[in-house]
Specification:
By secondary structure, the protein is α+β, with helices and mostly antiparallel strands. It folds into 2 domains: about 100 residues, no CATH class; about 80 residues, no CATH class. The chain has 8 helices and 4 strands; from the N terminus they run H-H-E-E-H-E-E-H-H-H-H-H. It is about 40% helix and about 15% strand. The protein has a 4-stranded mixed β-sheet with strand order 2-1-4-3, with helices on both faces. The radius of gyration is 17 Å and the shape is globular. It binds zinc ion (ZN). Zinc ion binds next to helix 5.
Length: about 210
């Protein structure tokens, strides 16, 4: 199935509540901003070359601004306060950007990738939430990291989005995801692997202590 903008928006808000226990609509209201869904259009070599708005008010200059500032990303991205990077007069905006790959993905991959983006959103917006990051989540998150292209001593070690803090949060969020959506995921590992589907997992994450 191909998801509509509304389908994606509903799932994103639902996950914010189910996993982090915060009301997304309230977050936008408190900060007087809007969330725009951006559909990334890819070429044959799977690079994003164009985009359009798939939910949110139509702003004629939004898509051309995104292209001009080089914000097209490959699979998905979440940008908090994108208006600071774009020339958008009188608009405060977050962007949720998703490529065709995700709009055609099955529910399991889509929900896990939306959780991945929510983890970026939570860290970058500094919103308060209910997930507790204990020391074990930090060390397990670090192990998860070694199976991705953001591994320590790898070429993307200093990737500013996929930090240790982010991996610790993702580890805990995927535990919650696996429990809340046990119709989609066999277990914690299954949810985490789905959330990192496009981050080059070469081996199964066997030495991670998965929560039951
Ligand atoms: Zn990411």
């Amino acid at each position: 199935m191909r998801y509509t903008g509304k389908d994606i928006q509903n799932r994103f808000y639902e996950l914010a509540m189910a996993i982090f226990r915060f009301d997304f609509t309230q977050y936008l209201k408190e900060r007087s901003k809007e969330l725009y869904g951006i559909h990334l259009i890819m070429n044959k070599s799977r690079q994003a070359v164009d985009c359009n708005i798939f939910f949110g008010d139509i702003i004629p200059t939004l898509t051309s601004e995104i292209k001009q500032r080089g914000l097209l990303s490959v699979i998905a991205a979440y940008r908090v306060d994108a208006d600071k990077e774009l020339a958008l007069p009188n608009i405060k905006a977050d962007l949720l950007m998703l490529s065709d790959t995700l709009l055609d993905a099955d529910e399991k991959i889509l929900m896990a990738l939306l959780t991945h983006e929510l983890c970026h959103m939570v860290i970058d917006s500094k919103i308060s939430h209910d997930l507790r990051i204990e020391q074990d989540a930090r060390s397990e998150g670090e192990k998860v990291r070694t199976f991705t292209r953001y591994a320590k001593n790898g070429p993307n070690e200093h990737d500013c989005y996929h930090t240790d803090e982010w991996f610790a949060l993702l580890y805990v969020a995927c535990d919650k995801l696996a429990h809340a959506y046990n119709n989609l995921y066999a277990n914690h590992q299954d949810a985490t692997e789905s959330a990192l589907r496009y981050d080059s997992l070469e081996e199964p994450m066997q030495n991670v202590q998965w929560k039951k």
